[in-house]
Amino acid sequence: YLKWKAPDILFRNTYDVLAELTDNQDLIAVWCGQWGDMGLPPKQSTFLVHAMIARHYMYGGYYPVGGSWRIADSIIPRIKAAGGEVFTYARVENIVIENGKVRGVKMQDGHLIECPCVISSAGVSNTFEELLPADIAAKAGYERKLKDVQPSSAHLGVYIGLKHTAEELGLPKTNFWIYPDNDYDGAVDRFSENKTEPFPVVYISFPSAKDPNYLERHPGTATIEIVAPAPYEWFEKWRDKTWGKRGDDYDAFKQELGERLMTYLYDKLPELRGKVDYYEVSTPLSTNWFGGYQRGELYGLSHTPERLQQKWLRPKTTIPGLWLTGQDILTCGVTGAMMAGVLTTTAIVGVRKIAPLMKRIYS
Question: Which residues does the chain have with pLDDT short of 70?
Answer without folding.
Answer: 1-6
